[in-house]
Amino acid sequence: MVGEDFPAELAAAQGGSEDAFAVLWRDANPALLRYLKVVAPENADDIAAETWVQVVRGLPKFSGDEAAWRAWLFTTARRRLLDQARLRKRHPAEPLDEIGVGDVPRTAGAEQIAMENLGTEWAMALLSQLPEQQAEVIMLRVVAGLDTDVVADMLGRSPGAVRVAAHRGLRKLATLLSGAGVTL
Amino acid sequence: MPDSFPPLSWGPPPFDERDLEALLSGETTDTPVALRQVADALAALRAAPTQAELTGEEVARAEFRALVLDDGARTDGLPYAQVLSALTLDGAHRPPARHRGRPVRRRRRSFTRPVNRRGGILLGAAAAVVIVAAVALTGSLSGPFQGLVRSTADSTSAATRHSPGGSSSGRLTGSGAAEPTTRPTPAHSPHASSSASHGPARQAPAQASECRTYYGYFQHMQPGAKWSSAELDLLGKLSKQAGGYSHVYAYCASYLGGMFAHGLPWWAYPQPGPQQGAPGQPGTPSPGTSQQGADNTGSGQARKPALPVAP
Q1: pLDDT digits (tens, 9 = 90+) for A38-73
Q2: Which of A33, B95, B171, B267 is most buried, by the most CB atoms less than 10 A from its CB?
Q3: Which residue on chain A is closest to B27 by alpha carbon?
C-alpha cells in the first residue's frame, strides 16, 4: 500500500509524472501478478500487461482513495482475465451464481504441495489447490487487500456468499496443510 | 454414570468465523493453533515483492510515456488527458512570431522533398493559407489558439486516434492513421522512436517532451507576449540538438503529434536567432515541406503546407 502519499502520487501520475506512476506500479504490480498467477497461471503476465495499459488510459479519469484504486485495478484485471478466458476457452464458463458445496479442487494431490517453505511461490501453489472461486476470493481479500463488500461487487455476488467462499477456502487450506504434514 | 465417554472430538471448535476473518484481514495476534500454518501461508502471499515481480517496471514506464505523450501530455502537473482543453496559460509567456530571414529558407530547402511531391505540398500550402485566413477573418484570433487546440484535440482524439479501447495507444501498435512515410529525421514515429530501438531510446522521450513544451507555447500565443527566459533557454537547447535554429521544427516535428493538426502557424516556424518582439508579426514560414509532412504523425490529417512568406 502506498499509504499517506497516495493522493499526491496519484495526482502526479495523472499529471503525467512517470516517477509517480512508477510508485503506483511498484506498489500494485506484485499483488496483481500474484493474484493472476493463482487464477490464470497460463496468462498472468499478459493479463497484467493489458491491465496496466487500460489503467494508464483511464488514469486521468480515476478519482478515489487507495482502496478504490486497488479495487479499480483488480476489477480491470479481472475483466481482462474474463476476456482472455472467453477468447481462449480454457477456463470453464463456470457461473459465479453459486458458491456451493460442490466445489471441486482444480488439481489433485495435497501430497504434491512443496514441503519446504518456498515463500510466496509456495503459498500461491497452495492456493492453486483450492477450487477457483475460493482461491480467487482469498487472493482478492488477502493480496489485493479488498474488503468483502468490494470483492462481492467485483464478483457479482452477495457479501455473504463471498464470506462463505473465503472461509471454506481457509478451512480447506488448514486441511491441506495438516494433511500434508507441513512444518514451518 | 454414562456407559461411554463422550467423543474426544467434542468440545469447542479449534477456530471460528471470527478467527477466519481475522486471518483474511491480516490480524496475526491470537491466531488459533489450528490456523497458524494457514496464517503463515497468507503472510507469504503478503510478503514483499520479489525481484521478478518488479522486472517489468521499465516496460511499464515506457508504456506510460508513450501513452502520455501520445495524448499530448505535458509534465507540468496538469491532467494529461485534459491538458489541451484546460490550458489557461497567461499571455505573458507567449513567444512572439519571430525569425525572418532568407538564410533560413535556404536551409529549410535542404529538407525539401523530392520534386515529385511539390504538387501535393503546394495544394497543402493553399489549404493552410485558407485556414489561417478563415481564422483571422472570423475574428477568433484571440483565444483562438485555445479553440484551435481544442479542435485539434477533439479531432485527433476522436477521429484519428480512436481505437476500440478508446485510447491513443494505437500509435504504439502501428495505428491505422495515415502516418507519413517520409520525414526529415530518421524517426518513423515519435513513439516508435521513444519506445523502440531507434537511436537512444531513453533520449527520445526527453526530446519529445522538450519539443512539445516549446511548441506548446505557440498554442496559446497572445498579442504582446514576449519571450521568457525559460522559453529562450529551451529554444537554445533545441537548436543545439537540432543543429541550428532553422532545424528545430524538423527536429521536433515527429514529436508534435496532433498538436498542430491544421498546420503549424506560419509565425511559429523557427528562424535563426531568437528575437524579442510582438507576436503576430510575420515570421518567415518555411517552404520546407518535409517538416510539414512530419507534423502529421499519427494524425491522419493532410500534410502541412508550404506556407508563403508573410507580407
Answers
A1: 999 988 999 999 999 999 999 989 999 999 999 999
A2: B171
A3: A142
* Contact predicate B42/A123, CB 8 Å: yes
| B79 contacts A14? CB cut-off 8 A | yes
Mutate one of A14, A32, A46, A56 to test the B interface: name it (highest B CB count within 10 A).
A56
Backbone angles phi, psi at B205, to 5 degrees: -60, -35
> Do the beta carbons of residue A124 and residue A138 sit within 8 Å?
no
> What proportion of chain B, given as a percentage, has pLDDT over 90?
4
What does each C-alpha distance from B211 to B93, B154, B254 come to in angstroms? 16, 21, 9
Phi, psi at A118, each rounded to 5° = -100, 15
Which residues 153-212 of B have a C-beta within 8 angstroms of A? 165-167, 169
CA of B294 vs chain A CAs: smallest distance (Å): 24
Span A105-123, pLDDT tens digits: 555 444 444 443 458 888 9
Report CB contact under 8 Å: B46, A21: no
Element holding A50 (H helix, E strand) = helix A44-58
Contact A167 B20 (CB under 8 A): yes
